[in-house]
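Why this split exists: single-chain examples teach little about how molecules sit against one another. For that reason, every record in the complexes split bundles all components of an assembly together and asks for one structure covering all of them. Below is a record exactly as it appears in the raw files.
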Amino acid sequence: MVRAHNLTKQYAGRTAVDAISFEILRGEVVGFLGPNGAGKTTTIRMLTGFLAPTSGGATVAGFDIFRQSRQARARIGYMPENVPLYDDMRVKEYLKFRARLHGMWGRRMRVRVGEVMELCGLTGVRKKMIRGLSKGYRQRVGLADSLVHDPELLILDEPTNGLDPNQIRGARELIRNLAESHTIILSTHLLSEVEKTCSRVLILDEGRIRAKGSPVELVKRHRAAGRLSVETKGPETEVSELLLTVPGVKKIVGATMDGDWTHLELLADSERDVRECVATALYERGWPIRELIRHQASLEDAFVELTLEQEPGE
Amino acid sequence: MIRFFVILAKELRSYFASPIAYIVLAFVMVLGGISFRFAMSILENEPQDASLVTLTFGSHWFWMSYFPIFPLLTMRLFSEEKKMGTLETLLTAPVRTSSVVLAKYVASFLFYAVLWLPSILNFLIFQTITDGAAALPPGQLWGSYVIILLTGAFHLSIGCLASALTSNQIVAAVMAFVTCLVHFLLGWFVIERGNNVPPELVDTVRYFSSVDHFKRFSAGLIDTRPFVYYLTAGGFFLFLTYQVIEFRRWRS
């Protein structure tokens, strides 16, 4: 569906996107994940033909984004960041305009506009001026706009930016429904977003792809997967020594004292659960346990690790 | 081509739905009436060689209504879209940039043409009231409107370029206004107010001076040279506008 090869965009003295290559298959929901300024929007703008790449190229549905830009654009439904809309138009009027821009006419156009308004829950506000719509409704109009010509590829740049939690849930629901019949590129800096909706993730940072894979894979590959917290009543050094003998425990990454209690952060093999062995070992020495937690590693840990410079010694 | 008409229809709709367009319309009507009254009062006082038409379009009241039109009609064309970000949705739809530029320009031109419709009424009413006694040669009348449309076509294209250059409507308006005014004043100073101006310079300036073109056309002398001049110059500025919009994709 999308194939990018060494896609590069340089702004004066700064490389926003640095020779990235990736491939997106039909039917995938791919998340572009990265901190602000990582090059997500620039990549998307190149795919939609709004910016020309400095070097490299990409194809969308087999059409070159530069040489066959209009054919490629006809197959993309794009919702830019912050959802720009014409404030002086009414919702239905705007969607009709957009449908006509995509070459739809007459009954087919009217039926389709009705469908997308229904799908995005806009039927109630169809006669309202866009100027007077809330952020949530604007987002829905933007989504309806990007769907109106029934595109093969849907590109959503920060689709839940500025929505309240309920609206975010609604938007996510909608995206998940769309995922059944569309290829979707979703750009976001919200990790929960990606974990809940995407089948694959590209982590971008400083214009480069830092990692790609499914959310589960990325988490698994990440070391934080085997992090354990233990609190026990025993001298720190002895507890540490004991726990390092437990099979599966790799190292102690942190220790704090709270009165008689020792709090330890362990790093263990992420493939197996070492909690039972830890508990048994401590019990045999007669040290009571106040806490024993195996942390749920999240994409957030993977993300932070990949995009932040690592602290020395860790 | 279909997309051109889709954008044209949308642009025309935004003109007729925006308050600023009606303010411009009212402004042009009021000053049109004043310049008409001004021409009548000249004819009242003493016999003139010039006709009512020539005097109307030669009056400074007419020029006062003429120049503010361009910045006001064109300032929002591209700068508003840039500011709102809608240029991104517009240009990522499968449309040609040239269709966008041309549709916006043609929309402004059509609205501009509509602005002058009420002023024709002045002449028609005058003719009816005076029972056809006043001399209103059709050549002068049509010549005047032809030159209004021609110079307008040119000045609107300057406005388009100014609007494409910035995302600030005020800046676009000022650029368009100053450029159109300088173009006008160059001719006006050299031809009308120039002392000791070498005749060769006056002849040169006559080629591009709107003052002179207005004078001839409103006297019924329809010349083909201004047609070529205004249409090619307008086309050139539209070409520049297109390049400015396209350049945005390449900016680094």
